[in-house]
Task: structure prediction
Amino acid sequence: MVTRDSAPACGAGPCFPEATTRNSPVKTFHAGPAILVVMKPIASTKRRWLTLLILTVAWAQVTWGCLTLRGSLEGWGYVVYWGLCVALTLVAGILAIVEFGVSLHTWRREREECRCRHDQLRR
Result:
């Protein structure tokens, strides 16, 4: 939380811009004497949380299956239970690969933008 009196000027440290457009990722809330700056969740953040949730459920399934349900899982119940666990793990792995690809694409795009800005400054 940054107070109005201690907010640094741009260039003197971190600068928190006001949200001037509806699509701005930065949302600024003025609550009395303080300014609260919050970032809107983006698609990659949602994807990461979903991956974490799926991995947590799969981990819990493995733990319960090995410790608690070991004697009671028989026949098709056994196959369905462990099949669901494997499916959740595979979905989390696929989401992780997608996230890696998106991150790599974003990194390359930002690198190219920086190169373009650098070349413009050198001219």
